């Protein structure tokens, strides 16, 4: 299958990339079922990339319904080594205002109903997740944003993304609790993706687009989908500029990432004795270690 070293997952409000050229739509099948939608292969300034609309191009999938494993495995099948997640988030800090961009470096997982591993069925692995975001990729992403000097947009490097289950937004008590933990932003999608990307040895970083102040802020009405999408649409052009510049920099200078060898010390099972069916299913992830 066509080799795209860089993948992009577009979240709420980012259902396509206008700058993509030589576009080809591919229906990818994986051992974990079908991804959220067709993957869009194309080139950005000559670099091949794979784009996927996380909730489907018509936004038909709830965060809890997302086929996270199929989405990440499909990226792996296409040859992706660097994955950029563009995501709408609520802000939990006054200084991260709507339309700002955050490149988080930590997560707090509050999901309850997600499958976040490829392993099981006779093969056990425990990846390190102390640094859940690839810091080399985050650096390239942050530098790309900074270089663009986007008007009225502040870049926040680092910060903690709370991943909640949803689909209802938080209560004020929850929002204030997350603030008391020092968290910066909140969304519903990135933790399962980041865990699976790490298991798939794909470097993963998040471009978080602030769309609202969640519900804690005394001067802002509580969050609505209208507010999120309105601000995201205002920001979609910026998001695409950032992605294009990040792809340009990654092409010029692909960074070394610990994520690319994440399974090296993570697999506990003696693979020689592991069930053949599971080895087949996880083929792409395990091939280096068999
Ligand atoms: C439309 S508001 C809630 C929705 O937006 C975020 O999506 P994504 O991370 O895919 O940009 C959030 O996580 C929720 O899924
Ligand atoms: N306030 C919020 N909570 C959870 N997910 C979001 N996505 C965008 N805004 C959000």
Features:
single chain, 290 residues, alpha/beta, Rossmann fold, 11-stranded mixed beta sheet, 7 helices, 11 strands, 28% helix, binds adenine
What is shown here, in short?
Helix content is 28%, strand content 22%.
**Count of distinct strands:** 11
Low-confidence stretches: none
Compute the CA-based radius of gyration: 18 Å
CATH class: Alpha Beta
Summarize the amount of helix as a percent range: 25-40%
Distance between termini? 22 Å
Average predicted local confidence, pLDDT: 96
SSE pattern: EEEEHEEEHEEHEHEHHH
Counting helices, strands and paired strands, the structural category is: alpha/beta
> What's the architecture, going by CATH?
3-Layer(aba) Sandwich
- CATH topology type: Rossmann fold
CATH superfamily: Nucleoside phosphorylase domain
Family: Belongs to the PNP/MTAP phosphorylase family. MTAP subfamily.
Binding site for phosphate: 12, 54-55, 87-88, 189
GO molecular function, one term: S-methyl-5-thioadenosine phosphorylase activity
EC number: 2.4.2.28
């Amino acid at each position: 299958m066509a080799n795209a070293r860089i993948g992009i997952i577009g979240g709420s409000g980012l259902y396509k990339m206008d700058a993509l050229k030589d576009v080809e739509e591919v229906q990818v099948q994986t051992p974990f079922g079908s991804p959220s939608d067709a993957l869009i292969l194309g080139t950005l300034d000559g670099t091949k990339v794979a784009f996927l609309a996380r909730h489907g191009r018509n936004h038909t999938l709830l965060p809890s319904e997302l086929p996270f494993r199929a989405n990440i495995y499909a990226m792996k099948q296409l040859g992706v080594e660097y994955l950029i997640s563009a995501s709408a988030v609520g802000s939990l800090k006054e200084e991260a205002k709507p339309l700002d961009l955050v490149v988080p470096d930590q997560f707090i997982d509050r999901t309850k109903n997600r499958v976040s591993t490829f392993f099981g069925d006779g093969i056990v692995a425990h990846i390190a997740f102390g640094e859940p975001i690839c810091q080399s990729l985050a650096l390239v992403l942050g530098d790309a944003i900074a270089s663009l000097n986007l008007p009225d947009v502040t870049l926040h490097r680092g910060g903690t993304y709370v991943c909640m289950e949803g689909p209802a937004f938080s209560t004020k008590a929850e929002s204030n609790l997350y603030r008391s933990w020092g968290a910066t932003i909140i969304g519903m999608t990135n933790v399962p993706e980041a865990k699976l990307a790490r298991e798939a040895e794909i470097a993963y970083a998040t471009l978080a687009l602030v769309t609202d102040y969640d519900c804690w802020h005394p001067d802002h009405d509580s969050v609505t989908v209208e507010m999120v999408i309105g601000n995201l649409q205002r920001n979609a052009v910026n998001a695409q500029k950032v992605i294009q510049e990040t792809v340009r920099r990654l092409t010029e200078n692909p960074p070394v990432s610990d994520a690319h060898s994440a399974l090296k010390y993570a697999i506990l099972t003696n693979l020689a004795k592991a069930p053949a069916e599971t080895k087949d299913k996880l083929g792409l992830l395990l091939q280096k270690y068999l």
